[in-house]
Amino acid sequence: MIAEDYRHIDAPALRRLEALAPLDQTARQALQAAIARSRKIAPRRELMIEGREVKETLLVVRGWAARIRILGDGRRQIMNFTLPGDLVGLCGQENPVSSATIIAMTPVAVCTAPDIAAAPALAQAYAVSRAREEAYLLAQIARLGRLNAHERIADLFLELLERLEFAGLASHGRFVLPLTQEVLADALGLTAVHVNRMLQQARRAGELSWQSKELVIHDPAALARQVGRAPVRVTAAG
Amino acid sequence: MIAEDYRHIDAPALRRLEALAPLDQTARQALQAAIARSRKIAPRRELMIEGREVKETLLVVRGWAARIRILGDGRRQIMNFTLPGDLVGLCGQENPVSSATIIAMTPVAVCTAPDIAAAPALAQAYAVSRAREEAYLLAQIARLGRLNAHERIADLFLELLERLEFAGLASHGRFVLPLTQEVLADALGLTAVHVNRMLQQARRAGELSWQSKELVIHDPAALARQVGRAPVRVTAAG
DNA sequence: CGCCAGCTTGAATCTACTCAAATCTTGTGG
DNA sequence: CCACAAGATTTGAGTAGATTCAAGCTGGCG
């Protein structure tokens, strides 16, 4: 029993969904069973392709993916990152077609998300998950539209921290950030060169350190205050 | 009967929802009844406030609104525009809290969106509406992140054309654009001065004209090709 | 231990911003 | 119906933040 409890808490995807809404035993078991049947996807492989029909809703179990769009001349924009516990292709609509391509940025594990019919307690978790995803899209728009390079970087890092904390993959301003500066640039609407310069400036200013894929934000609260960031909220409860 | 048929087609909100998914008589009547009970909102008034609980889903019947976020130092970002036939506050979640403020940009009429329980045919229309809204958020991200000023303006105008056509409020590249250049700038992540300069350049290039709130895109298909824009699609069917 | 992707640095350039002032529109009250 | 005020658009000049191009460096991996 204790061992089993430990398993839930330890599984990032399960942990995130539990944090979004209370789950009953049925829901937990459905999730664990689904996660047990998860499959691997190699970096640069698509989880979903723009314009292609969406056959099932996926739950990301491990790894990072990104929703991207590539322009005719090769410019690339990353719309958002998909982290463990995130749902992909949730829409509640008939014949849905994906409006963007999602590719794995690291080795990724995904499974088919359990159907709500099988575990009604999941409905609220899925709904909150989707609402949060939308809220993060809005945050991305504000970032690209109105923040300068330094603020964009700080704001994105704080968002990733917030999101990874839900899955138990971050704490005390520290988490694994398995991206290159170029990928970061594509998410921030900047060039890799400029991201590099701004990162170094932030390091020199003592705001953060980032080596061998581990990012540390030295004082998340202070940085959030500095760039005017507030945590995302989508329910009155949490 | 003919008179009544004409009424549906003519009402922009109804027309948009009909275009998104087939509606039965029950759904149409529920919508018409709701629209008949619509209320007016003056320009600059909020339809929804960030952080405030969302009490009901609204259907925009007339006028333009905008989802905005204002930063501490007064910078403002418009995340998207809300047009007739759009739904506001749709989320299917308990205790939802609005993740952005929505304000009327013109005199607006809204009504309570009919409940799906009362007219099940609405479910698909609502789901498609929400999926389209999300797709337009992605488009806004790509616009802000990777397009230059000229492309942003053209792309947004083409998007508005596409959306207004669903409601029967635009055709042949022509529609009423009841915004100031400053509002446009806040949507495009630019300054009003720069928007002004780019608009004049576009006018001189013969791409468009815009006087007394009427915008004309002279050759929408050509402009779309030029800036690399494809129409938004979210269902396999339409 | 050598290679390659990713990171770092510099210099020149450019797009978009800022500030400031003039002109044009629109709506309103007399 | 005109005059005025307030808001919106236009124009100019100078500046700043980010890009581009190019070259050198570093570290992780086969």
From TrEMBL, chains A, B:
Cross-referenced InterPro entries, in alphabetical order? cNMP-bd_dom, cNMP-bd_dom_sf, HTH_CRP, RmlC-like_jellyroll, WH-like_DNA-bd_sf, WH_DNA-bd_sf
Q: Where is the HTH crp-type domain?
A: 147-221
Q: What SMART domains does UniProt report for this protein, alphabetically?
A: HTH_CRP (SM00419)
Q: Does the keyword Mitochondrion feature in the UniProt annotation?
A: no
Q: Name one Pfam family in it.
A: HTH_Crp_2
- Asked whether the keyword Nuclease is assigned, the reply is no
Keywords assigned by UniProt, alphabetized: DNA-binding, Transcription, Transcription regulation
Q: What protein am I looking at? A: Crp/Fnr family transcriptional regulator
